[in-house]
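Handout, page 2. Input:
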Amino acid sequence: MKEQSNQQDATKATNSGSKKKKRRDMSSKERVQDLQRKLYLKAKGEKGYKFYILYDKVFLSYVLEESWSRVKENGGAAGVDGKSISQIKEEGVADFLTDLQEDLRKQTYKPQPVKRVEIPKANGGTRPLGIPTIRDRVAQMACKLIIEPLFEADFQETSHGFRPKRSAHGAIATIKEELKSGKTKVYDADLSNYFDTIPHDKLLIALKERISDKRILDLIKKWLRSPVREDGQDKGGRKNKKGTPQGGVISPLLSNIYLNLLDRIVNHPTSIFSRSGIRIIRYADDFVLMGEQISEQVTKKLEELLGRMELSLNTEKSKIVKAQESSFDFLGFRISYDKCLYEPKCKQYWNIQPSKKSEQKVRTKVKEKLKKIGHYSPCEVTGELNDILRGWLNYYDVKGLSYTKVSKSKLRYYLRERLNRYYNRKSQRKSRLYGQQAFEKLVADFGLIDPTNFYAKAKS
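Output:
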């Protein structure tokens, strides 16, 4: 009866959606959303249902048009073929999409090697980033748009990363709620090289829980087995048995599909985790376990589960934290139990603020940017810096959740000192800001963001 009721609800929702607007009057975006809604409702209404015919939807004209639109909006560098978004626009988007559509329809599509670059990390090291070609990114986006609704119907509430209408802020808000409820023992877990170690065979088993269309599975295999081009040489290819390159459009979804297996086990009512009152809060491959107590038996079980999934914990970074005594960092935030200084009725509160590493990261970005724009006009300098400041402040200044007053003051002080030095160099003598209070001038006359006067909009 419950399944029948779910199916009836799905049918009603689909019918009501179709009455609002005729298909011929819909934009590509609206048609994709309508298709996704139908796929999601079908998957939600029938838990064990496997989708047999999906591939033909990947190369639908409106799906490819919306895929191109999203890839274009995300931007990014060219892949191994050297073709940028602007170049494709110059040569003709319609021809580009028609050519890709034909290759997908005839099943002659073959992805090109993934360009690998090293991205600097805050600790001085680097992390690898894969850059597929624009063409491959559009194809991956089209596939993602079709299969994502099927797995969204199965994903757990405890997963927050790279999902529609979910964010890091939701994960932090959930952590705060759990801390308030008394779950103050936190197992801060760190997976070792997660994206590089996802086993293809086990990932395909997870995909087959919802997908029976062999053509879709073969398409995903092609991306998983794409060689990586580094220093002019191709590595991997068909011999690849593990990993999905960070940077691929479909990689975050695949990573969520695989780690959903862990979420399901931890959240299962009969598991040792649930019986111990433990919750998991996960954002992609970053996650914490939270409970009133976390026993050695629980952590051993976690290691065992990850071992069966052919994943491993970084034992040097993974640790149990007594959150009432020690702070811990998650997704760039520092979470601590601090004394109230200004409210007599409040003794202590859960303080969520940018981590020290996050504060240093934005200062480094400002410093590096100023090195590159030595002769820009004040208006241009303001524009470049505001892009950095706005992004950082919008992420960390979350109304009703985080406390950023101290961090904002420190950032303001850094900007003031750095900009005064920047404009008081000999090379800046011709600048109208030479010998002036540059930060104050840029704020007053050119609209530079003063962090202490910036207030992000409430997150929906």
